[in-house]
Task: structure prediction
Amino acid sequence: MVILVLQAVLVVGIFAAVAKENALGENKGNRETNGGKLKCCSNCNFSFSGLYTCDDIVKKCDPVCKSCAVVKTHPVKMFQCTDTFLGMCGPSCKKY
Result:
């Protein structure tokens, strides 16, 4: 019984990751994966597919980021990298 529950959770997780990946691709109109590595990421969103996005909102995007979106304009302009990266997230930005 426990194995069946774990399998169900795994399948649901995979479908959720694929759905999110598809939604990200549709939003930016580009399904490319950024092969670079961010200097740091405190709010990493990792999927079972091996892809991750960094949901940090920053004053300036990392130079590796190919698609940097404005997410807040007032009182200070803030940005978020909307790229999908392959591999693992960088270290937490608390050090930087």
